[in-house]
Amino acid sequence: MKNKIAYIFLYAWAKVHAWLPVSVLYILADILYVLVYKVLHYRMKMVRSNMKASFPQKTEAERKCLEQGFYHFFSDYIVETLKQAHVSKEEMLERAHITNPELIDRLVDEGYTCIAVFLGHYGNWEWFPASNTVFQSACMYPIYRPLNNKSFDKLLTNFRTRFGVHLIEKHSTSKSISKLKFDKTPSMVFFLADQKPGGNYLEYWTTFLNQDTPVLTGPEKVACRLELPVVFADMTIIKRGHYSIEFKLLTKTPQSTPEFWVTETYIRLMEESILRNPSYWLWTHNRWKYQREKDA
Q1: What is the Cα gyration radius of the chain?
Q2: In what order do the strands lie in the sheet with 96-98?
Q3: DSSP character for 37?
Q4: Which one of 12, 24, 164, 229 is most buried, counting C-beta atoms within 10 A?
Q5: CA dihedral sign of residues 11, 13, 16, 18
């Protein structure tokens, strides 16, 4: 009952804000920037540590500029997420669109009913559910980690599924994708694959943003085991509140590539995306929590 009341309050609060035009919401975002960055210093030590290690060649003033840019975008991301509570499909498609949906349609026509799509925490990945409607038959199935706060989790689930998207909980990833594959359900399974792996899964390390970095290998293993074509979703920020994704086919046969080839290729492409404008990546994440053990 307590969670239900909290959800009703949160949903009503989000709905009221979502009725506001985006231009007004961005005024709120500018105020939120001052609160989050100037007053609360939200995860500032983490952001600065990550940026310093990633860009040691940049001056302190250059990193400060990237830092400010990140917090401006982070504030935009918050109000843009709220906007999902009340936004038309037409406006969503205008603000967040996929430039080449025909790549997915062609793969489905070729008989690949289930497709692994790799993307990262860059730009606003939350604004693309409406794009689910632009494909001939395939539907989006993002992998997500449920939040500990049940009310917030239900709220975000409501936002993410408004346009027919189906969520897959992380703990049931393999089972759910196997079912999609063997039921021949036209589907795109989205992996946010740039996050850190759990401490028991530090299997593959590479250099990412100038640092020795453990990388998730689960997405590659699923793609190889189920023989899913792998596509990279390259996001571009066009201007404030406008994003686009271009699909890039990595391979139709990941099972025939060398071990970790898919993972390494994805990481290189993800790094290229981030370096176009580093302020749009999620720097608050404790990405480099783990250090590789040195040989004795």
Answers
A1: 19
A2: 96-98, 242-251, 230-239, 114-119, 187-192, 139-144, 168-169
A3: I
A4: 229
A5: negative
Tokens of 287: 């990405």
Which pLDDT score, from 0 to 100, does residue 37 have?
Answer: 97
Q: Give the residue-averaged pLDDT of 194-206.
A: 90
Whether the CB-CB separation of 89 and 130 falls below 8 Å is answered with yes
Is-above-0.85 flag for pTM? yes
- Write down how long the chain is: 296
Q: Over the stretch 233-279, which tens digit does the pLDDT of each residue have?
A: 999 999 999 999 999 999 999 999 999 999 999 999 999 999 999 99
Q: What is the pLDDT of residues 177-190, one digit of tens each?
A: 999 999 999 999 99
Residue 88, classified by CB atoms within 10 Å of its CB into exposed (0-12), middle (13-18) or buried (19+), is exposed
The label of the residue with tokens 């982070």 reads 74
Angle at 292 between CA 286 and CA 296, to 5 degrees: 155
